[in-house]
Amino acid sequence: MGKGMRCCGFIFCGIILLWHSGVVAIEIQVIQNLQFPTTVQSTSSQRVTVAPDDSGAAIFSATGDPFQTVTVTVRESSGFMVQGAEEIKVNKFKYGGSLTKRRKSGIGVFDAAGVLTNMRIGATAKIPRNIPSGFYQGTFTLRIVYR
Fold first, then answer.
1. How many domains in the chain?
2. Pairwise CA distance, residues 38 & 134, whole Å
3. pLDDT in tens, 106-143
4. With a threshold of 0.90, does the pTM exceed it?
5. DSSP characters over 43-81
């Protein structure tokens, strides 16, 4: 990367297993982590948004109870990508792809095989002014619950 450039990535990790009336556990697979575009360092703060339909959006699939409806959320309302002591705030998570958008969540339905694919999540990063160049990363928790 050139001088003054920064690459921002966000990692969703782990598998969350939840049960609905003891029937079928939900298993989540990360297809693609959220990737913010490389940004030029600036003397003023910047907001960079990745929409759910952008190529950098996080993408997930899950297996669960066929035909059941679920609510999908990022547990944390905001958090940080870090590099050493430097932080970039990430918030305003948006839901799309196979998810019906709700105010602060997405709604999905497992198909006949118990599969839900193309769950897409975007977010906004607030990049502070004069932040050092580098690779910033963080972790959030995706939560899927039967309705």
1. 1
2. 10
3. 999 999 999 999 999 999 999 999 888 888 899 999 99
4. no
5. SS-EEEEE-TTSTTSEEEEEE-STT-EEEEEESSSEEEE
Q: Give the CA distances from residue 17 to residues 26, 62, 102, 106, 143, in Å, rounded to whole numbers and listed in that order.
A: 5, 10, 23, 18, 9
Gap between the Cα atoms of 100 and 109, Å rounded? 9
Place of tokens 């019906």: 100
16 and 45 Cβ atoms separated by less than 8 Å: no
Where residue 75 falls (left for φ over 0; alpha for ψ -120 to 50; beta otherwise) is alpha
* CA-closest candidate to residue 34, choices 94, 75, 99: 94
CATH no. for residue 125?
2.60.40
The sheet with strand 100-101 has its strands ordered as 100-101, 106-109, 69-74, 142-146
Q: Give the whole-angstrom CA distance, residue 99 versus residue 20.
A: 20
Enclosing domain of residue 31 = 5-146
